[in-house]
Specification:
The chain has 486 residues and is an alpha/beta fold. It has 13 helices and 13 strands. It has a 9-stranded mixed beta sheet with strand order 1-2-3-5-4-8-9-12-13, with helices on both faces. Helix 1 runs antiparallel to helix 6. The radius of gyration is 23 Å and the shape is globular. It starts with 18 loop residues before the first helix and ends with a helix.
Amino acid sequence: MMHSNAITGFTTVGQALDRTIRACLVVAMLAVSACALTRPAAPPIQQAWATPQLQSLADLSVAALRARSYGSELQYLQAFAGTEQAAGSALLASYQSDGLRLYTRLDLPAAPPPDGGYPVVIYVHGWVGKADAPGWDFARQAGSYSAMAIHTYRAAGFAVLTPGLRGHGRVAGVAADGLEFLDAWDNGSYLSPMFYTIDVLNLLDSIDSLNTERWQRLAGTPADQPLVNLSRLHLAGHSQGGDAVLTALAVAGEGSQLRHEIASASITAGCFAHRFTQLETYGPMGSTLQAFMAGDGRWTGSAVGRDGRVNPNFVFPYPSDWIQSVDPSSPEWTWQKEVWSVATVRDAVDTKLKEMYAAINRQVNDINDASYRIDTLPDGRLKVRHDQRIESAMDRIGGFAAERFITEPLNLHYSDRDYYSLPTWNESLAKRIQQAGGRAYPYAYRGTNHSIKASKYAWFSPPGTQDGQALLIERDVELFMESESR
């Protein structure tokens, strides 16, 4: 969630392509104009989605997202040879998401498509942030987990679509549309994943365009052979991408307006709790020692200090694993003084609430005077009193409380010490989905971090901790294939 990317160069079809990829694309080169970045005609847009300004917070509710339509058409842009490619071909395409021109990477397996076409995985990346989003790099995905996932899915025979989402990335110098949405909603409001959900669903209902004659020529597929199998579509998401995937599952559940059904899905370290819960977790954990120190001001892995004193505003035992030490008196505690400079959890929560309420008052037409209050309970814990209009709307936003719609098989991968995706969130969600008749499979990877890897610091990962990335992707491939055979 916290990683960003440096830009690496894209190559056009005629520049430095592997001979095998170039041979596969030569017919397409003749058919596709060199001006492939010309904006295609946009489909009709519902006015509520054309700009970051919302008429109401209810516009982002699961009910509202389920009631609307989606879809576009994938337009071929160019090909490139990504540095992590082992086989197959990788292409860049564009599509429309409510009038915004967005980009996606498409990785095709080396083997020809089977009868019925390749099964598909849409892989949704995690948080990048407004500052780094324009430089989102489709040729080299952020972090080893993303690269491993794309490579493994493709090696197993899946076509993999990796959308950049609104405001993310550029192709041939042309930036994706939608950076204004990040200006309005990124991070502080905890609502940006709902807009990314819309982008994912518009891509999902555009996949049938890959079976047109143009794409068949591009991939070297016979005219009577579909490129992708529309009954074998899967979603996978990491971190904030998991939040978008979870909401997409709720929107695409039984009775939705989508034309294409999701066969199964996977979420890794997904940030998907209630919006207020996210705020009260991420804000303090990222800015104040009080969030993870015991009552005696030391780190013990719990709220209870060595002298028995209890921190009533303790949030979670483990901050991010890139901290060399959790002892503020140690020589390693240097730059961390600035990062964890907020005095109390109350101050941290207040700062994030100011951001959230400012964004809502500014960007939502039917709310412009909302306010909140933070009370201290007799036991020292905090209680936020929200504006009822915001509280009521937030209860209906996101897939975390929409388990009745999540009927397709779902893997939930998480660490026992990752505050971005608390174990209790994953366990609660899996239990509620199962009780509602769905199929959710929670997998805990002990001692790992937000990327499901062992930390190099012993205070975080105990000796013997194993990286879990390869195992979790193996479990995903197994789930995807199993769901297709039902």
